[in-house]
Every structure is written in C-alpha cells, then in structure tokens.
Amino acid sequence: xxxxxxxxxxxxxxxxxxxxxxxxxxxxxxxxxxxxxxxxxxxxxxxxxxxxxxxxxxxxxxxxxxxxxxxxxxxxxxxxxxxxxxxxxxxxxxxxxxxxxxxxxxxxxxxxxxxxxxxxxxxxxxxxxxxxxxxxxxxxxxxxxxxxxxxxxxxxxxxxxxxxxxxxxxxxxxxxxxxxxxxxxxxxxxxxxxxxxxxxxxxxxxxxxxxxxxxxxxxxxxxxxxxxxxxxxxxxxxxxxxxxxxxxxxxxxxxxxxxxxxxxxxxxxxxxxxxxxxxxxxxxxxxxxxxxxxxxxx
Length: 298
Fold this sequence. Notes:
Layout: H1 9-40, H2 46-68, H3 76-100, H4 106-113, H5 116-127, H6 134-153, H7 158-184, H8 190-205, H9 209-218, H10 221-246, H11 251-256, H12 260-273, H13 279-296
Helix pairs in contact: 1-4, 1-10, 1-12, 2-3, 2-8, 2-9, 2-10, 3-7, 3-8, 4-7, 4-12, 5-6, 5-7, 5-13, 6-13, 8-10
C-alpha cells in the first residue's frame, strides 16, 4: 500500500537544500576572490588590500546587523575566542593570501590553499580526538608530494619559494579557523560571529589604512571597485553563507565542497587575467586534491 510522505518532508528537504546552496555560493565567490586579489594586488600592497576589503565587509555586515537588530553578544572567554578567530581568519589569512598572490598566479595559490581540508582532518585528529586513521596519513603524504611539485614548478627564484610558503600559511590559517568556528557556532549564531570576527580582523589591519589611501590615489579607478567587490561578496556574503552552512553540517564535509575552487580559479584567471599555472603545478595541484579526497574518504 502506498503511503504519503510525512507532513514535515518538505521542511526536511529544505533544511538539506539550503546549506548546500549556501556552500555553492561560498565556493563560487571564494573562487572569484583569488582572481580579484591577484588583479588588485598589482596596485595595492597586501596589507592595504586586506584593510580595504575588510573595511567594506565590516560596514556591510554592520548594516545587516542594525537592520535585523543587534543580537545578544557573547561575553568573557567566548567573546575573546570569537575575536581571536576573527583576527586569524579575516586578518592573518587575508594578509597571507594577498602576499602569496604577489608571487604566484591565482590558480597556483588556490591549489595550495585548498590543502585546507586535509589539514582540517589533521587538526580534528589532534584537538577533537578524531584520531589519525591510515587514510588520513596516506592522503597527507600524497598532498605533500603535490606541494613539492608545485614548489618545483614555481622555483624560478627566491620570491616564488616565499609565495609557496605564504600559500601554505594561508591554508593552515584557513583550516584552523574552520575548526575553531565549528566549535564556536555551537553557542553563537553565524551572523553575530561573522560580524564580530570581521570587526576584530579589521581592527588589527588598521595600521595599513594610510597605505590604502596612498595606493588608491595612484591606482586605476577599477582597483577601488575590485576592493569593494572583494569586501561585499567574497567576504560579507560568502562568509555569512559559509557560517550558515557550517552551523548545519560537519566542518570536514563542508570543507570538501571547496574541491571545486581551484578549477574555478584557473578558469576565471585564464578568462579574466590570461594566467594559467605551469603544467607541473597542475600535476602537483591534482595530487593535492587527490590527497585531500583520500584523507576525507570514509
């Protein structure tokens, strides 16, 4: 005998679909950020670009919070933890990423940064008691081989080596921030956490504000528009979508959706910047993604 679906089936489908859509929005916007950072980085110092992006994002998020009504804020250690997360995610990560892209093309940088999912698994094994299964160690070894190939492919000089190290630093910051954010979202909603984190990140970047004014004064007009885009969409919108999705799924599962980012970055940078990674970097990037996939396989 046929039975009709439970009355709450549409609600369950919606609850499954919305986090997936939010993750898709995040992936697309974060991919565009690599291209925007590479473009604006020709005219702005890494710190100037970071503070400009975060000023725009903080203003946009503050407007959203004021329209919705200022929420109850976390206190004590939780507030300090949210602030530290914001400094790492919105401050240090942006600086590392911007600096990396002054040495490497957008696609190669994206391939390095997207080691983050395997690093998330490593951090979860260390700090969340998830252990170190064989698949994680094998995946880590494969991904490390990919990083070596990328380093060889970009070994045209000392600056390129610095770029690889900066890209790896960005991946570590990304992974650490994702793990911390997952824990903090248990007691703080995504909007409040993203807003407070962006304010903390902006505050530590303010010493570069004079440099932003100086650089924008001589940069092409399109550079300012790129900074506004980076602040509004890959930061304010994308991080809100990421926080929403992360509050409704596991950190590891959500991080695996970013597998698509390097491919999108390579396509966008080829179309918009006429840049493509070196062939050996492609091979190294593929190994990195294989290593990530192996480490996340159940």
